[in-house]
Design a protein that fits this description.
Order of helices and strands: HEHEHEHEEEHHEHEHEHEHH
Radius of gyration: 21 Å
Number of strands: 10
Length: about 325
């Protein structure tokens, strides 16, 4: 927390000087800045083919999003943007502090966590949370889970909000934004239908990693066991956690355990070695590798690969 406040303080102080020489907004160009990959990708789908629109992402491809620290050079760019899309919640506390320095109504913003109904992060049986609860507290719920985009249904809601913002900002291209959104919505609805068919019966996934898929699980009704909660800073599981996951893997006779992107995969490797099952990736889409970014991977393509991997695990 002290480190966070130090970052916020330094950002605000440096921005105070940098903003004095910031160039005026270019009224002939729409600039969209997103803090993370999902909203960046939603925005570029909606703005496809529209001249004079730029879409950029703050987080660097290939980096772990949970350890992101804002670069001071981006602060003036955010203030001069036409629309700034950010996640909200604990991971974006620095954004809220920054926006306060801009003044009310200084910048158009969209908070992703305002676009959908929020769920609490779950603490499942066998999961290593790294937290000690007060005596007598038997709650299985944590703080709000911020991985709101992991459900295709939520992706539609967030994309629609982005479309609405752009139609308000750039009325000249309202028809194109609307057309792009409707086309993208159809693709997401198709993906949603495929997930529903896959989970038409009660299924259980084994995730030997963090579990940033609460919204996906809630939407399609599958059960899961995982090593850590979605935003956990833990990386070394206890012997008890590994033993529990190994036991469940055998009991459920699952064919695969999952790991997430940017993971060391050591928990999955340990369980695979002990049980003989294979490991498959389940991508949260929070960020992408530099290679995937350069190869043009999208939220849709990554979620389609997730679907294939889940179907393989459930055969």
């Amino acid at each position: 927390m002290k480190r966070l406040f130090a970052i916020i303080l330094s950002v605000c102080m440096i921005f105070a000087f940098a903003s004095c020489s910031a160039p005026p907004k270019n009224q002939n160009k729409i600039s969209i800045i997103s803090s993370i990959f999902p909203s960046y990708d939603f925005a570029r789908q909606i703005t496809a083919g529209v001249d004079g629109v730029s879409v950029s992402m703050l987080i660097i491809p290939g980096t772990e999003p949970h350890s992101y620290e804002p670069a001071v050079r981006h602060m003036a760019e955010i203030k001069e943007s036409s629309l700034f899309i950010y996640l909200g919640g604990e991971s974006d506390e620095w954004v809220e502090a920054l926006l306060e320095t801009f003044g009310e109504n200084e910048i158009n913003t969209l908070k992703m966590t305002d676009c959908v109904p929020l769920l609490n992060e779950e603490e499942k049986e066998g999961m290593q949370t790294g937290k000690e609860k007060p005596e007598g507290d038997v709650s299985a719920e944590g703080e709000n889970d911020e991985h709101v985009w992991t459900s295709p249904k939520n992706a539609i809601l967030i994309s629609e909000k982005i479309k609405n913002c752009l139609c308000e900002i750039d009325k000249d291209n309202e028809d194109k934004y609307t057309e792009n959104f409707e086309n993208y919505k159809k693709k997401l609805e198709k993906l949603d239908g495929e997930f529903r068919k896959t989970f038409s019966q009660k299924e259980t996934l084994m995730v030997a990693d963090r579990f940033p898929f609460r919204y996906l699980a809630n939407e399609y009704g599958f059960e899961y066991f995982a090593a850590f909660p979605g935003c956990s800073t833990e990386s070394d599981p206890s012997a008890a956690t590994i033993a529990f996951l190994e036991k469940k893997t055998r009991e459920l006779k699952t064919k695969a355990v999952f790991y997430t992107e940017f993971s060391s995969q050591k928990v999955a490797d340990t369980i695979c070695e002990a049980t003989g099952v294979k490991k498959l990736r389940l991508h949260s889409c929070h960020n992408v590798s530099l290679e995937d970014f350069e190869n043009g991977e999208t939220y849709l393509s990554l979620m389609e690969q997730n679907l294939k991997n889940i179907q393989e695990a459930l055969k």
